[in-house]
Amino acid sequence: MPVSYDIVVIGAGAAGLVVASAAAQLKAKVLLVEGSDRLGGDCLWYGCVPSKALLHVAHTVHRIRQAMAAGWVTLPGPAGISVDYLKVYEHIRSAQSYIANHADSPDRFRQLGVELVFAKGRFVDGRTFEVAGRQVQARAFVIATGSRPWVPPLPGLAEAGYLTNESIFDLTRLPKSVAVIGAGPVGCELSQALARLGSEVTLIASRERILPKEDPEAAQVVQQQLTQDGIRILTRVRATAVGQEQGAKLLSLKANSGAGTAAAGDPVIRAEEILVAAGRIPNVEGLGLEAAGVQYTPQGIQVNAKLQTRNPRIYACGDVIGGPQFTHVAAYEAAVALVNALFFPLSQARYRVIPWAIFTEPELARVGLTESEARQQYGKDVVVLKQEFADVDRAQAEAAPLGFAKLICRRNGQILGAHLVGSQAGELIHEVVLAMSRRLPVSALTGIHIYPTRSEVNAKAALQHRRQQLATNPRLQNFLQGFFAWRRAWS
Fold it and tell me: Is the pLDDT of residue 359 over 70?
């Protein structure tokens, strides 16, 4: 039976836009369905773009203060610097507007040949999607509806009001004080930005440290910097209720197992605003997934390695499948789903070399396994190579020696993972990503690097593998000692 479209894409965030634009450029007939009134999804409107615009301003303000403290910069008056937060808001909106009017413009997609429908829709059966009063069929469907902030069911939270990443960028005035629930990437990035712009910030972590999924040593470096920025970090505690008093919000806390840092003498946090950054949940409601034979859990739509759902005609990618929730991962998954949906389902999503970065200052970037994960898989066949930025000349020249590079390898030089924490870590990790994706040994990272650059940190770390091999091989040491003695004797 003929169908109207080659592919129907449901959701116009990062993943959905990649599928729709690429499919149209391949001359497929494409319908893109978006439940809101604009393209771009979470990344453009609530995530990557506004958060990085905010962080840019915050880090700039911080550097000015550092320059003043060092005596490099002086101001004519004693008042110091002040931040016009309305201008910060306008900068965020300007960045969003440019991208919305260029890369994510509806006109651009229409010019590519994509048919757009701004309305909510649902599956009525395994091969039919109903939207805007129409029932459409296609050779394949791709669900890319993304995720949204998870809000804990705290008594009094809804009544008191709260912020999430979907509302914080609407503020035109900087709150005097903010309590942040959640110490993952979003909580840490926004905590630092707000603190550096002048808010009094309390960061609430349910675990024993912030960024619990990252390398402990790397996370500790970030935690130390957040503390230096004036952020009060409470660990092993959780919020239990929210109240209100004289215009302020009162957040009650309780210690988790062990002694939480807020357990003694300070069970209540008083703040002007509460920011919830406690995780995300997939957008699966109202799609008629049951009627389409698509299985899902609270963690997301279930897919196989080809990103097919239980209904082989329907694919899913991006945050809605509950994997690593990053824009670049969504784009990668979109490419896999696109090829399988349009042609033949032969490609598989592989996550061995998936990098990500947390854009605090210092940045924290990661790819592959952590040290503990590597030791669980490979036992004693693990080598850890660590290089401090303090021993990289460019870092010293820029007065930014904080952090390190840690490479996790096997004894034969196979790179299993890397963890960088320091200035520009999100840029520097890509050299390791390339080596891992091409299955190059760690020795490949010892090639010529421009001096003086921060990228030398990778070469210096990798060079330690050769040094360790020599230090643990007495036979080679004895041979070299004898060889050079023989050469001297015959010179």
Answer: yes
